[in-house]
Predict the 3D structure of the following.
Amino acid sequence: MRALVIGGSGQVGAALEGILVARGHTAVATHHRVPQPGTVQLDVRDEAATARLMTDAAPDVVFCPAGLTVVDYCEDHPDEAFQANCEAPARAAALAAERGAAFVFFSTEYVFDGRDGPYGEDDPVAPLSVYGRSKLDGERAVMAANARALVVRTTVVYGPEPQGKNFIYQLRRRAAAGEPLKVPADQRSSPTFNVDLAAATIDLVERAARGVVHVAGPSVIDRYAFARMACDVFALDARLVVPVMTADLQQRAARPLNAGLRIERVRRQIATPLRDPAAGLAAMRATLGARVVDTTRGHR
Ligand SMILES: NC(=O)c1ccc[n+]([C@@H]2O[C@H](COP(=O)([O-])OP(=O)(O)OC[C@H]3O[C@@H](n4cnc5c(N)ncnc54)[C@H](OP(=O)(O)O)[C@@H]3O)[C@@H](O)[C@H]2O)c1
């Protein structure tokens, strides 16, 4: 297939590009602010530029992991959040449809309120935050704009990534500096290895899947337990991980607490492994090497 990955400089996009290329597909990947080797610049909010790139790349499928993902920033900047997470992806999905291309949008478990997770695809949505609402509106708008749209909901993504931003990199940097890190012990979710997420998404596209599909790790655990596992795998001082309650963190946006995603639907459609955190973290460690601190960034 010919693929366009909008947001190829992020942790999901880079994993998508790597697997597409490894499988012999053609992939054009974009960055917005942080170039990576081989990426082309695109602000997906610029409709004319997005249309030009789609015409040039002539994709069969457009993957769109691009988005405004900083949940607390979104809470204070709703217009920006809705533009990045709903309006721009919907326009891109329409441009893809005009060119006969499928469109893959990445959404989140934050469309749920976290009262009684883990959640299936058809469970009632009730986002608590601007980020969650912008993604939910994005899901609906993308599916209205492109009959071949696939919406992949995921959560707590970790793994090797070019910008070294995700929670595991933060934990390693804090531990290397000997600084404690407060981690909520009352947020339950399904940590998801980015390589598995990318492989499963491509497998779904290869089977022409559409509609909403949850793609996440198989275990529902709290963030503190996940951090402790990462300390074990990366040989970090677990005493630096301090369990706290979400309410004590005084975050701008409310979080779903008892969340997590059920993955029966994806498992009925494809056999792609979705590793539990112990296996995913071990694979991440193998990719990054045995270094205790990753200060270089730039893994791809
Ligand atoms: N990470 C998670 O735990 C998680 C959980 C649930 C859902 N998701 C969803 O999964 C998707 C991918 O997440 P991620 O972790 O890969 O995020 P990420 O690492 O922050 O990557 C975001 C990507 O979007 C690009 N981007 C941002 N604004 C853009 C714009 N205006 N135009 C074009 N590209 C833009 C970024 O480019 P630059 O970096 O070059 O600026 C980057 O490539 C997101 O939509 C997110 O909502 C993620």
